[in-house]
Amino acid sequence: MGGLLRTTSRSESENSFFGCFLHPGMNLTEFFLAFESALESQRQKKDRLDHESQSTYPPLKTSLAIEKHAGETYTRSIFFYFQIELYEACVSCHVSSLSEKDDVKFYSIKDKSMTHNVFEVVHYTTTDFAECNCKNFQRIGILCRHILLALNAEDVNEIPESFVMRRWTKYEAHKPAALSYNDLAGTDSADAAKAKLNMLYMQFNLTMKTHGSNIEYVSELLDMLQEFNKRHDAQTTQLSKHAMFERLIGCSKPSSIEVQTPKQSRNKGCGKRMKSTKERMTKLASKPLRKCNFCKQMVRHDIQNCPERKLA
């Protein structure tokens, strides 16, 4: 739904997410550790949503084959958006007129759910491409209800390949976002090591998604990992906390610390400003009079702050 986001909406969303993990009093090391925790939280949420898309099937509202194909193609959230458009195409829309010229069909579709309720759909039957003047597919990347009604009239059972945006599909998210291992093979740089770790994580994740339901394959993989750990446990050493920080930052701890953590600045709106004497007297004069139990007069103080009691 990136086409619906505004610049401020994206910034506010990021600030809201990272605000759960970061605070202004962190030093550089704590910031990196908290940032890694935030990314790990995103990865865990992504894996959970991927598991739901792979292992479960969404409920269908119609008996159309194109809806079933959308459930097999799209991610869960995008499918629900597509399902709303398909349901509205069946309930709120109907074809008011149809004309054909040179393998091109022109539909006039009336939509009762919108103010501008007449839309024009052009369907090129040779290339199986269609366009609508509502421009919903150009803005969001999901077919509108008007094109879906035209495709249903043509007995199209699957979403045409030209209308399937790869970023909305289930398997697009599993592709590597960084450089692959083949691009950095033969090098010993930090980027190559990071690419190997990314590839290892992706291969393990893909293996569990593909063969996780087969107990024999899972047992074989578990035995291989346990054997690998037994062979290499003797060669690994437990890093101390300082050593972990030095490896994370990329430099050793200095003998003398010259740059200290800066004090947190006072943000706008925090604290109280100094009130002038005129403001204090005006606020005091606005208070109602009450009877003091010590001096028995209608004044603006009580028995605890009575000046006559202090003199007594």
UniProtKB/TrEMBL annotation:
InterPro entries: Znf_PMZ (IPR006564), Znf_SWIM (IPR007527). GO terms for molecular function: zinc ion binding. SMART domains: ZnF_PMZ. The keyword Ribonucleoprotein does not apply. Residues 119-155 form the SWIM-type domain. Keywords: Metal-binding, Zinc, Zinc-finger. The keyword Transcription does not apply. Pfam families: SWIM. This is SWIM-type domain-containing protein. The lineage of its organism: Eukaryota, Viridiplantae, Streptophyta, Embryophyta, Tracheophyta.
